[in-house]
Every structure is written in C-alpha cells, then in structure tokens.
Design a protein that fits this description.
Layout lengths: L1 H5 L2 H4 L5 E4 L6 H15 L3 E6 L5 H14 L3 E7 L2 H11 L3 E4 L8 E8 L3 E2 L2 H18 L11 E3 L3 H10 L9 E6 L5 H9 L4 E6 L21 H10 L3 E5 L6 E4 L5 E2 L1 H15 L4 E5 L5 H8 L3 E5 L3 H11 L3 E3 L5 E3 L8 H13 L5 H6 L5 E2 L3 E4 L3 H13 L5 E3 L4 E4 L3 E7 L5 E8 L2 H16 L2
Parallel strand pairs: 2-3, 2-4, 3-7, 8-9, 8-10, 13-14, 13-15
Antiparallel strand pairs: 1-5, 4-5, 5-6, 10-11, 11-12, 15-16, 17-22, 18-22, 19-20, 20-21, 21-22
Helix pairs in contact: 3-4, 3-6, 7-8, 10-11, 10-13, 15-16
C-alpha cells in the first residue's frame, strides 16, 4: 500500500474519469481500493470490467476486480475492448462498468472511465467525488475488511455481440463496394474494426492495427492534424473511397474524404443527425456550442429539434437523458446515440457514414458538401497568464458593437449574422481555446486574427 499512501487523488481524479501516470501517480494497490469504492458507492452486486492495450492495463483492471470482489460483487471481465464496447457490455448486461484506458494520452498514463448500469456516466457529481472521498478515508485509516463472501470472477468475450448490435442499428445491406483505409493508431480500433467490418462489402486497408500501448507510429489522437498525415497519404495512394482514424480507446472516429481531406466532425454530426431523424421523425438532437451553424440548420431542415449545450460528454449525456434526444454530436468527434444507451461510439458513427456513402453513388466530398457550409478556424489554443482578464478584454472589445450577441453558457460566445466565435478556458491548463466560424473564409480569418491579438496581447 506504499504508493497508495502517497497518492494525491486530487491530481488523478478528474471531472469525468481517473487519469494519471503509472506507477508514479497511481498503481495496482490504488486500483484495488478504487474497485472496492466503486462497488460501495454504486451499491452494485455485479459489475463488468474491460481494458485497452496499454502495458499497465491488465494488471490495473485485475486489481480493480479484486477490490470489487472483496466487497462482495461478482465481476465479469471482458478483457481487451474499446471504450464503446465496454459501454455496450454495461448496457447489454445491465451492469455498472469500468474501462481501463487513458484514451489518447502517452503510454505512461492510464485511467478509468466508470459508468452505472446502462452506461450512465459516473462523473464528479454523479459518484466519482464520493469514490475519491471513500478511497482517501481508507488511505488515511485503513481499508475495510473484506466481506464474508467474496464475489466471483468470470470471463466473457463481448466482441461479436457488440458488432452485431451496432450492425443492427444501421442498414448496410445495399451499399456498393467501398475501399476503406482505417488508421487504428495501434489502439483498440485494431481489435474492433476487423470484426465489425467483416460482413460488409469493404476492401479494408489496415494501418497500425497492431495493439501497442507505446504508440510507436503516432499519438492515437486524430484531432491533431499531424496524426492523420499518414492516413491522408494512404487514402490518396490507394485511391480509397474514405479514410477513418480512431483514437486510442476507439470511442472517437475522424473521417478523411477520397481526396485525403479531413471532414469536419460538425459535418459528420449533421450527416448522422439527418439519418437518425429519418428513423426517428421529429426527434431532438444535441450539439455543443462550438459545432457549426450547419448542425442546427440541418436538424431543423429534417424536421428535428436542435438543443445547444456546453462542451463535454457529461453535459451531452445529461441533456440527452433530459430531452430524450435521439443523437448528439461534438466538435471533438464524439457521437452519442439513444440506441446505444446515450453513450458515445465512433464506430456507430462510422457505420452511418459508410451507409450514406455506399448508397450515394458519388464521392464522399460531394456527399458531405451539403453539411459543410461555413468557414471554420478549428480550435486554436493560446497560453495566457490570466484567463479571466483576457476573456474580459475580448468581451469589452466586442460587446458594444451594433448587432452583437453575447452569451456565457460555456466561456464567451460572441456572434452577429455573419460570424461567431467562442473563447473558453481550459479546466486543466493555462489556456484559452478559440473557435471561429463565418460565412466566408476572409471574414473568419479577420475575426480570428482580431480575437487572437486581444488574447495574446499582440
């Protein structure tokens, strides 16, 4: 228990998950305490546990399971899986779950994404704070004695069931043959893609499918442009119809068109929203406040009701539950489905794109053009000493202008009829994050440069 005694849980228990460097910040002894606390806080008599391909993941997940069984809970171990495969298991089996992954973080990191039965998220205000407090009390005064009857451990492979469930949600029966390049980034997409795509009329060109938690080829974070360069080149070289890039735990998916150009996650959100609305007429679609104007426009055009929310999966999932929304999308390539227990799954979004492309008859760039209507800056980070002061300076510079609308739902959003921008502080770093969109490229660049000059004091 030496490492646990020294652990600073304030550094590793984040708003939505546990994440830190192994073994410096946490280790298997702490994972065991977290497993015990998870069972106590959720009141579960059975849970499901899965893990990614990081070197520390098998040991940490096994320790978590020991802690859970020590509190009397039965544990189903599903082994190697993607995060959305763990969510599937939680929903399908009706059990709380824990996924061991640090997503796209470097190899020395690991973490836990926890959920209640039905993939309902466990965050700071929905149990994670209680789990942290319980573990801290045990570190200070000693862990509780095991219950008289320990829980059992069973192993179960859910990959085929996961694939079958996803394929039941999208009609791919009439798609034309497609050549698809997939960059798994040595992450869990290399585990799930072959099974999910096996029955489809697809010529699969795999890139970096070897499971390797040291990420020898590039970071498994497709939102960073440098990490999709290999995929873009391969799509062009192969003459492929589409490229897909998954992050480390394969819950996010980024799309590249036949020219090797990245497709905005906002355009994918709009495309999938239109398809979901065809299945569920009049449904509600959630989008965060830095997705494109095109998203609520497309939702309305297809008879749906758009609902704007803060950035972050806990806010999206809360709004989906509150409104009964059929779908939700974020600029970060997270896609949430009511038919998938309101959880996020990049794989299901990818299947929707393949279904749309496979019945479109023209290239992907033509298909997505109708959903990509405006000029966007992408997210631009600036390191600042005082986030509040810089944000106030930007607000003061714009607020008095005629026709300007200001709101503070999440950071500062300023808009007029031709453009909008959002400036948000990072919760964990001294950064301000800027997103700008306009009706044309020149206007977007002008607004972007003016805001950046104010933020950076240039």
């Amino acid at each position: 228990m030496a490492a646990s005694a020294a652990a600073d849980l304030s550094q590793i228990v984040k708003a939505y998950d546990v994440r830190g460097v192994v073994p410096d910040q946490w280790d298997e002894s702490l994972a065991e305490l977290l497993g015990a606390a998870f069972v106590q806080v959720t009141g579960a008599d059975a849970i499901v546990v899965g893990h990614d391909m990081r070197p520390s993941s098998p040991g940490l997940s096994a320790a978590f399971a020991r802690g859970a069984t020590g509190r009397g809970a039965d544990v189903t171990l599903i082994g190697l899986c993607s995060t959305d495969q763990l969510y599937f298991a939680s929903g399908h089996l009706g059990l709380p779950g824990a996924m061991f992954t640090a997503s796209h973080n470097p190899a020395q990191y690991n973490g836990i994404k926890m959920c209640r039965a039905g993939a309902a998220p466990v965050g700071q205000d929905t149990g994670l704070g209680e789990i942290r407090a319980l573990v801290e009390s045990w570190i200070a005064s000693g862990a509780p004695a095991p219950v008289p009857t320990a829980g059992s451990v069973t192993e179960r492979d859910t990959l085929d069931e996961y694939a079958a469930h996803l394929l039941s949600l999208v009609d791919l029966s009439t798609i034309r043959p497609l050549k698809v390049v997939v960059d798994a980034g040595n992450g869990m997409g290399g585990h799930t893609v072959p099974t999910v795509f096996a029955a489809l009329p697809i010529e699969l060109v795999p890139m970096y499918f070897e499971l390797d938690g040291t990420f020898p080829n590039h970071e498994a974070n497709p939102l960073d442009p440098k990490n999709i360069v290999d995929l873009q080149a391969r799509v062009r070289a192969e003459g492929a119809d589409i490229g897909l890039a998954f992050d480390g735990d394969a819950d996010r998916c980024f799309v590249v068109d036949e020219r090797g150009e990245g497709v905005s996650p906002s355009a994918i959100t709009a495309l999938v929203a239109a398809r979901e609305l065809a299945k569920h007429p009049g449904g509600t679609v959630i989008h965060n406040l830095i997705t494109s104007w095109s998203v609520p426009e497309v939702v309305r055009e297809h008879g749906g009701a758009p609902v704007r929310t803060r950035v972050g999966h806990s806010f999206i999932k809360e709004e989906m539950a509150r409104t009964g929304a059929i779908f939700g999308g974020e600029h970060s390539a997270h896609y949430y489905f009511r038919d998938f227990w309101n959880a996020d799954t990049g794989m299901l979004a990818a299947l929707h794109v393949l279904a749309a492309l496979g019945t479109h008859g023209k290239p992907l760039s033509d298909l997505v053009a109708q959903y990509d209507r405006y000029a966007g800056s992408g997210e631009i980070n600036s390191t600042v000493a005082d986030q509040t002061a810089r944000t106030a300076a930007v607000r003061e510079a714009f607020a008095a202008r005629e026709g300007i609308t200001v709101d503070t739902l999440d950071g500062l959003t300023v808009s007029d009829t031709n453009w909008w921008f959002n400036l948000r502080p990072s919760n964990t770093e001294p950064l301000l994050r800027l997103n700008v969109e306009a009706r044309d490229e020149a206007t977007m660049k002008a607004v972007r440069d003016e805001v950046l000059a104010l933020v950076r004091g240039a």
